[in-house]
Amino acid sequence: MAGFGFSEPQEMFRRQVRSFVQKEIAPNARIRAKQDSFPPELARRMGEMGLLGINQPEKYGGQPADWVTLGIAVEEVARGDFSLSIVPTLDAGIALAFKLASEDVQAEWLPRLISGEVLGSVATTEPGCGSDVGSLKTRAVREGDHYILNGEKTSITVGMQSEFCIVFAKTDPTQKARGVTAFLVPLNSPGVHRSRLPDMGCKPMGRCSIILDNVKVPLKYRMGGEGKGFYLVMGQFDLIRVNLGLMTLGCAQVSLEDAMKYAQQRTAFGNPLAKYEGISFKIAEDYTRLEAARLLCYRTLWLKDQGQTHTKESAMCKFLGPKVAVQVIHDALLIHGHVGYSEEHALEQRLRDVIGWEMADGTAEVMKIIISRELMGREFLPY
Ligand SMILES: Cc1cc2nc3c(=O)[nH]c(=O)nc-3n(C[C@H](O)[C@H](O)[C@H](O)COP(=O)(O)OP(=O)(O)OC[C@H]3O[C@@H](n4cnc5c(N)ncnc54)[C@H](O)[C@@H]3O)c2cc1C
Q1: Nearest one of 176, 129, 131 to 154, comparing CA atoms
Q2: Cys-Cys with 332: which of 25, 78, 103, 255 at CB 3.0–4.6 Å?
Q3: What are 132-186's pLDDT values in tens digits?
Q4: Does the beta carbon of 69 sit less than 6 angstroms from any atom of ligand 1?
Q5: pLDDT value for 52
């Protein structure tokens, strides 16, 4: 990123990804949106296009681009298929978390993750706790060179199609967050049972529940130290939060473009809708909101590229991005009148898809807890 714009290589990358998405991702997105899974070859195509290994080690198939470039990839995929943009977003966060694992474990999984051959997922949420992650009940008990995991996880994105999951479990039940450790759990392990959840949006990615019934996990699959993995791995997820913001904004941007075209073509009372300020002002406001939120996201990625702290900014992106996107897509739907309120138009589906990401990876309230903690200090947290 140079100044407030993209550098020439970043612009070139954006054009390449846009053309790939228009040719290979967007055309069947509406059909896939009604299905319970997505074709695995699409993840592999994203891998081949270099969208899954941005800023990852070249020895594992990654490429030496910056985090701003990852944001561009995520935003562009989301323009064509919001659901699919979850793959580069999640992969990037998971790949970073792998830095906590040994070289052997990285070599075992990273090349396959970066090529799109396998998908990973992340499991913190349980039936009894979501925002209050420190209260989770899933147990991990060490027995020699492995751990035994027992518990139930829920709401796991891409859980049905992923090969492995990073599972957060208590190694010390007397502690809250300090008693939580992260483990890589291959989902074909004996004792893992999965069931799909009936979601209102993002159906091809879907969410699932995972029951862990005496699942044996080798010691080498512990991500970070016992009781420390939670903080370490969660730190890597700052990256996911920014990209979740950009996913929703990419989807909203294309919806606003649809609304502008429609407002220029559709006439009412003898004029195109775009001539009425009730419509054009809404478009101007939404464009302004989108642009402000996008700048926040790209600045946050730029901060990460500079090696600067960005926890507060990531939480701001995750709070603001989905909120702006829901409003912009809702407005776009209303500008389309009765046409927008139909399954024949992408807008209703985009609205259903994006709403979920107001909650995923921490609700707006949780993001505000983080922002205010970073601004005023931990001593002003109520817990
Ligand atoms: C589309 C989608 C994808 C998801 N993917 C994953 C995934 O891959 N892995 C995973 O582990 N989880 C996933 N989740 C779960 C998600 O992380 C949780 O929904 C989220 O953390 C909130 O937890 P909860 O739903 O249990 O709500 P709760 O924690 O029960 O909260 C309910 C409401 O109370 C509010 N609230 C809670 N505490 C406070 C407080 N202190 N102050 C003010 N308000 C508060 C919340 O903001 C929320 O509005 C996903 C969820 C969705 C919708």
Answers
A1: 129
A2: 255
A3: 999 999 999 999 999 999 999 999 999 999 999 999 999 999 999 999 999 999 9
A4: no
A5: 98
Q: How far is the CA of 34 from the centre of ligand 1 (A)?
A: 24
| 65 vs 72: CA distance, rounded Å | 11
- The count of other CB atoms within 10 Å of the CB of residue 201 is 18
What is the pairing mode between strands 267-268 and 222-223? unpaired
Q: Which residues of the chain have pLDDT under 70?
A: 1-3
Q: For ligand 1, what atom is nearest to the CA of residue 124?
A: 11
Q: For residue 271, count other CB atoms closer than 10 A to its CB.
A: 10
Report d(CA 247, CA 252) in Å as an integer: 9
Q: Give the DSSP H/E element, type plus range, for residue 97.
A: helix 86-97
Taking alpha carbons only, the member of 242, 221, 114 closest to residue 165 is 221
On the CB side of 74, how many CA atoms lie within 13 Å of its CA? 30
Q: Coil, helix or strand for 381? A: coil
Q: How far apart are CA 383 and CA 379, in angstroms?
A: 9
| CA pair distance 123, 233, nearest whole angstrom | 12
Query: Closest ligand 1 atom, CA of 201?
Result: 1
- Residue 67 CA, chain-centre distance (Å), reads 14
Domains of the chain: 8-114 (1.10.540.10), 120-226 (2.40.110.10), 237-380 (1.20.140.10)
* C-alpha span between 179 and 141 (Å, rounded): 12
- The 10s digit of each residue's pLDDT in 318-352 is 999 999 999 999 999 999 999 999 999 999 999 99
